[in-house]
Amino acid sequence: MGRINELRLVARVAQMYHVEHKRQSEIGEILRMSQATVSRMLKRAEQEDIVRTTVIPPPGTFADLETDLRTRFGLTEVIVVDCSEDRDGAVMARIGEAAAHFIEVTLQQDEIIGVSSWSQTILRMVDNIHPMKGSKAKYVVQILGGMGDASVQTHATQLTARLAKLTGGEPRLLLVQGITSSREAKLVMLADPVVRETMDLFGRLSLAIVGIGAVEPSELLARSGNTFSRQEMAMLHEAGAVGEISYRFYDKDGRPVETPLNDRVIGLTLEELRRTDRVMALAGGESKTQAIAAALKLGVIDVLVTDKFTAARLLS
Description:
This protein is α/β, with parallel strands linked by helices. The chain folds into two domains: about 1-45, Orthogonal Bundle (Arc Repressor Mutant, subunit A), CATH 1.10.10; about 65-315, Rossmann fold, CATH 3.40.50. It is built from 14 helices and ten strands. It has a seven-stranded parallel sheet with strand order 1-10-9-5-2-3-4, sandwiched between helices. It has a three-stranded antiparallel sheet with strand order 6-7-8. Helix 1 (about 1-20) packs across helix 3 (about 35-45). The radius of gyration is 25 Å and the shape is elongated. Keywords: DNA-binding, Transcription, Transcription regulation. InterPro entries: NagB/RpiA_transferase-like (IPR037171), SorC_transcr_regulators (IPR051054), Sugar-bd_dom_put (IPR007324).
């Protein structure tokens, strides 16, 4: 009977604390025991399964999918958003909203943020960020050069500048072509001290926010007039490329694809991304599922924000 009497008192202490919301010091006074004894009994209540902690995910959230994705791909955090339909526009909007909230809550003081400014999903994120009180970021760095037509390049410049203004950081733009005409042209552009000053920040990034793309360019990039040619795209397919992050390509097993095209890109490399403290990827949609699955095998992504349809496909 001794154990039953012990557990009865343990249960009473737990009831007073968790149900009646009394402080530990109050419980000690009422039951004539020390606060240390009360604390030990509360721990005992958990050990004896008298008190069970249950987290009930609210409607519209997908804790099981998030847990399974974290476990399978070794991710620090996964955010799976609800979406009424498996359509790119709807998916991008919901991902952008969730990513904006996550950034607002988790951004630390003096962060150096790298942003892949050619992602429409990241644009949705920036659209949803509220101006932060006081300066949070130190720099917001454009991690891929501009693309083609000047009117389209404005997109990348404005996205970077807007994110800097919202987070209180200083924008550092990469005002050169993202894809140069030749390796020699790239070397000339890299000789510019302003370009070098921006790219020197690549090794100091505390947070990189990136999109994930299929090999075929997005609508935004296709409009830029500065994507690879049909023959070059064929070269990438033959090399096994299935996706890209900031125009750095990789295969289905998450291995970087090395082609001469790499020598023409001015932007963050996958190795530099790997050395970044925290990498947050925003991506969803059926057309990108293979690219996302392969990107998660690269071992560079820490936080994934995606939709419920894509999450289910990634786990199937």
